[in-house]
Amino acid sequence: MGGPPGGPGVEPDSTAQVVTQSHNLAPRSHDAELRDYRAAFAVARAAMALLGPDGVVLAANGALGTLLGTSPERLTSLDADALLGIDGDPHAQAAFHDVASGRRDSLRCTRRLTRQDGGSVRAELTLSRTGTRPLLLTVEDVGERDTLREQLRHLQMHDAVTRLPNRALFFERLAAACEAAPGRGTGRIGVCYLNLDGFKAVNDTLGHRIGDELLAAVAARLLACAEPGGHLVARLGGDEFALLLRESTGTGQATALADAVLTAFQQPFDVAGHRLAVSASIGVVEREAAGTSATGLMQAADTTLYWAKADGKARWTLFDPERNEHRMTRQALSRTLRQAVERGEFVLEYQPLVALDTGELRGVEALVRWEHPHFGRLAPGRFIGLAEEDGSIVQLGRWVLAESCRQAREWQRAYPDAALVVSVNVAVRQVWDSDLVADVAAILAETGLPARLLQLELTESAVMGSAGRPLQVLHALHEMGVRIAIDDFGTGYSNLAYMSRLPVSALKLDGSFVQGFRSAEHPNPADETIVEALVQLAHRLGLTVTAECVESAEQAERLRRIGCDTGQGWHWSRPVAAEAISELLR
Known about the structure:
Strand order of the largest sheet: 13-14-16-17-18-19-20-21
Largest sheet: 8 strands, mixed, barrel
Structural class: alpha/beta
Oligomer: single chain
Radius of gyration: 45 Å
Strand content: 15-25%
């Protein structure tokens, strides 16, 4: 079989076809391509212009003419400096000439261009090189975009209910005020941070719609107070508002603004047919802006607002560094109380209880001290209240009880004839939140201390009116053989008739009664009469009486004459370590 003419695999006339096709694919003429380019340039929706290397406008399209309010022809031959508004801007001119000379490929910037009618348009300009062709300038109107962005920011930064600046905007302005350059203005800053008193009741009884209308009315009054001084008012959330004094002239200006707000709130608010009375508590902070942070300032304001609430509401309270330091110390102590017991940071001291008739040592009161690693040795008044608040008094009290009994047992072994009683204070919360009876029984069994050598002290207000669990605890301890003493007697109910029905062994007269015994030259007959009557009644009920806070021999002698059994105070000894008590027993 033979192939077609021309050899195997070659189609007839194939070469002629290729030549013909190559002639059909010949490039279009340069003039035709340029016409298409100009047509696209003219009808483009993007505003554009062609610039020569010297910065002269070679051509502008209709979109650019419309944007600038003129015809494209009138833009031709203009100098780019005038068109772009970079006259007098050396930096912008230098950047433009860098692109024109080829030192950089493109330039993008935002400028405000002047329109033919005298108005202006904010535009983003892009100038780029196109090889050997003219420079291409594109102009995009960003005014609408900026306006939309501003509208969105306004919505994000303002409260929908009151139309006031919200928390985000307030903190932004506050931070800017704190960071203002030193030496500008007064250099001071102030904040009035307020919370509405009783607003929750309005929401709960009348509903959130009425509550929102009330918030809007509150905002209007706050603005009326703040606008004369040019102060910023913001709603931080809920029923909390803040007023910012960016150029405060001093504490007086801030407190005067707080007074104006309180005065404005004295008039009731008429809301949706309801007349509502609402007051405000205000925390006022005023200080130098230098060295102040927005966070630190608002923490101080929040603390001061809390003080205003605690002090009775419907008032302003000025930030007090000393009061704040005390609060910070309390917080620091409260955070570490439980861990301090576990770390063994507490120690006991003992104050003697002395027989007034013989001067013999009858017992000791165990007093706890906190050896704090930062604040040093702390007396009970600094931390017992905190321990009662957070419940760590149970853990601490158990340790005090165990350590006291252990030490008392050592004294008993060393001095068996002394029969020294150790007296330990018990908090009310220990009675309620722990099994005190089981704890005492376990500790006595563990240490081997006889129950008769342990005395537990409770305050008068803790045992008066006792019923249920507290009364059961007292009776169980008494049956165990433990002595019960009433501490600070005379400061509470002083109901001896009721006391007679309790398993109480001793009364400890509050130190305030002993104060009248301090001056032998000017004694207080009333104090002596009261103490004498209490002692006689206590003895008739079978109770012993201890006088606290005895500071002189004269006081001790007069207390002895009227029948007090034992005394305690600096006249004999301050609270001392266990070793010092051992010395007294030798």
